[in-house]
Each structure stands twice: as structure tokens, then as C-alpha cells.
Structure prediction request, 285 residues.
Amino acid sequence: MTTTSFTLGGDLPVRRLGFGAMRLAAGPGGGEPRDRESGIAVLRRAVELGVNHIDTAGFYGRGQVLANEQIRSALAPYRADLVIATKVGPLFGPDLPRGSQATPEQLRGLVEQELRVLGLDRLDLVYLRVGGVTGPGGESIAERYQALAELRVEGLIRHLGVSNVDAAQLAEARAVAPVAAVQNPYDADDAVILAECERAGIAFAPFFPLGGGRSPIATERLAKAAARLGATAAQVALAALLASSPVTLAIPGTGSIQHLEENVAAADLSLTPEDLAELAEPAED
Prediction:
């Protein structure tokens, strides 16, 4: 049976199926901002359903609809067991080139902004998000991670993580300060990082766990398992993700209460060893 909880950083227990806030403001295809109040209703329902791990970022938003503002409006004052993880690193602005990243000196301002907008005195988990929308770039992250580590010593951050990194960058960060979580894409290239996370007890929270709207998930194998279980292909994919490793955390996002409830229900699916073996087999050309 898949364990339903994981302890982040050794002292923050979370349910392994959490909630990603990226889709609160807009859908996978972009377009017009979603209704702010609908997002607030989704967040409140998530907590009602037992979700206690919300993944967000100050740059999640569309127009005037901002995920962090929705989180504060919906959930503050926060429950004691609610863990909010956020990301800093990317810089956005009309005069900035795409893919701009904060300097070590600028990271303090980004962390302070997260604290202010979320209405918190300390952030539970802060990821250093590296690079742009593409995969890990291989540049050194030690200086920037050190800047966040200093904020952790000051008490502004409880735990640190890294996002969109390769194995060398993960090792570089761990040489500076403890890494509580890694947030990377979920694909074959991350097998080495996932194995290291398992060895070290580091959480692995893949972004776009269901493809992020970029790729279809209703494969024949998923559909077969879904039909047997009376579930959706997306639910089976989430259940398989949770079963893939005891350190994986799922953070699917949505702007729909119905979709949220379907996602949360995936944590209760029991896949057989035969299901998992079949789903893990490489696809035929």
C-alpha cells in the first residue's frame, strides 16, 4: 500500500498528494485570467479535502489574478499543519529578456515579497528555480543557493529546495546547505536525481505531473487500468506517480473544484504490482 504522507526536511509532515497553484489564474493554454473567486473556492475545498501542501510562486498569475494573493485571501489565517512551498529565481518585466534570473543580492527582495504577499513571517519551503522553461542549463547555482541559505539562518525560510536542476547542481546545492526537496520534470532523465533523493530522504515533487496540458495522458495502458478501477486515466497516472517512489510528491493543479476532487481521490487508488509493471514498460515505437 502506498504511504500517504512524507516528512519534508525531517519535521514537516505533508500528504503526498498536494496542490499546485499555477493553474489558479489561467488554464494550460493561457488565455484570459480565470475568475479570482473561483480560485479561492478551489483552494478552500482543497484544504477541506485534507490537502496540506500547496506549491506556488510569486510569478504564478495572469493579469490581476495572482496565485499568492488568492492563497492568502482563501486560507489566512493559515492552519498550523498547512505547508506552503514557493519558488524564487526567475525575473519578469517588460524590460527584461526572457529567462532572466535574480542575482544573489536580488533573491532577498523576492523572498521578502513572497512573505509580504502571502502574509507569513517565515516560508516553509523555498525552491531556487533555475533557468527558464527549458531543462537544466548546467550553470553554477552555489552563490544563489548560498544567498537563500543565509535567509534560512536568519529565520525567514524553514527549508530549502532546488528546481529544474541537473545532478551536478543538486550536489552543488547540498554542499552549501541541506536540500529538503527537488522540483523537476518527471521523465527518464531524472532517474539519477530521483535515486539520489531516495537515498538521502529528499522529496521529489515533479512539476507538470500529468503533462501540464502539453501531452496526452490517456494511453492504452492507462485507459485499461482506469477501466478496471472505475477511475480516469489522469487519476491512474497520479496514483502511479505516488507509487513510483516513497519520496515523490504529486502537486497537480486546477481551477476546477470537480477536477480537484478527482485529483485528490487518486491518492486512494490501489494499483496492483501488475498494473505498475505494465505502466512502467517503455512504449513501443
Q: What stands out?
A: The chain has one domain: 5-212+245-255.
